[in-house]
Write a structure and sequence with these properties.
Blueprint: H1 4-18, E1 25-28, H2 39-46, E2 50-57, E3 60-66, E4 74-79, E5 84-90, E6 99-105, E7 108-114, E8 120-122, H3 126-129, H4 142-149, H5 156-161, H6 171-181, H7 194-216, H8 240-246, E9 266-270, E10 273-277
Antiparallel strand pairs: 1-6, 2-3, 3-4, 4-8, 5-7, 6-7, 9-10
Helix pairs in contact: 1-7, 4-7, 6-7
Bound molecules: zinc ion.
Length: 284
């Protein structure tokens, strides 16, 4: 599932490609991707709008649209779900498999394809409004992290992955930032002291920023069917997936030595998610 860095890289790539274009037509191939409203209503609302830009908060993207007769832009929210992909291709090109929606922007089209159909397109903004602070978009201070995590009895990793607490971290980056901050994923949130909040804050901001930078350095291909993955999963091509994995400190590395202390990285279930950590570096 794409997390904040992947969605941010996608936003930065798409923004210059679609901004200023008029949305001539939206075709929805899988109606369940549009919810809760009907696809008919959504299509009628967005038709003829101009794209002012692509925005992001947490793992949500939206196209800022403006109708010529109305000056106030409104968001068309897109969530990629588990397997959603967004890319631009010539409108005359053949549509890929698993296409769920096509936004025709003149000679080019923005394609939304989604194999598992957990993605979503909507005019509703509730899901964005309910999100916690975004660590790279908002001014995000240690005190913001502290008040977001709160005095919860939940394990800190579970709390970090709650999008209403903090927007953007999923399983991969929650594991990564906790290792970087030297905090056990199982630690009770209310046991975190100020010094640890500072380390966790630093770990979140720097890990996400570096990963966005890394994603932007990749040679991405918007069009090809075989390379569609590379867009935000950081690399199905040219060994990029391997390069991407090498960047992780603990995620997906069970049984390998920790880069800091050489202890063997462990995997355990926490909140039904595979959790990777170093027993020695991440004490409770
Ligand atoms: Zn270690």
């Amino acid at each position: 599932m794409p997390e904040l860095p992947e969605v941010e890289v996608l936003r930065r790539y798409l923004d210059p490609l679609v901004s200023g274009k008029r949305l001539c037509e939206l075709r929805v191939f899988k109606s369940r991707v549009v919810r809760p409203e009907s696809s008919g209503k959504l299509i009628a609302t967005v038709k003829g709008c101009r794209v002012k830009g692509v925005e992001r908060r947490g793992k949500f993207l939206w196209l800022n649209l403006v109708k010529s007769r109305l000056r106030t832009p409104f968001p068309l929210v897109i969530h990629l779900g588990m397997t959603g992909r967004l890319f631009v291709q010539p409108s005359a090109a053949e549509l890929p498999r698993h296409v769920t929606a096509v936004f025709r922007l003149g000679r080019e089209s923005l394609i939304f394809k989604d194999t598992r159909l957990f993605g979503r397109i909507t005019l509703e903004t509730d899901s964005i409004e309910q999100l916690g602070p975004d660590p790279i978009t908002d001014e995000f201070l240690v005190s913001d992290l502290q008040s977001a995590i709160g005095k919860s009895a939940q394990p800190v990793k579970v709390r970090l992955m709650n999008q209403r607490v903090l927007a953007g971290l999923g399983n991969i980056y929650a594991c990564e930032v906790l290792h970087r901050a030297g905090i056990s994923p199982f630690m009770k949130s209310s046991d975190l002291r100020l010094a640890k909040f500072k380390e966790l804050h630093e770990a979140i901001v720097s890990t996400l920023a570096r990963q966005v930078e890394f994603g932007m350095s990749l040679d991405l291909d918007f069009i090809g069917e075989t390379t569609g993955d590379g867009l935000f999963y950081f690399g199905s091509r040219h060994g990029q997936a391997r390069k991407s994995k090498e960047r992780f400190r603990v995620y997906g590395r069970a049984g390998e030595p920790c880069g800091i202390c050489s202890s063997i990285i462990k995997r355990a279930e926490l909140g039904k998610r595979g959790t990777f950590f170093c027993v020695k570096c991440q004490k409770e």
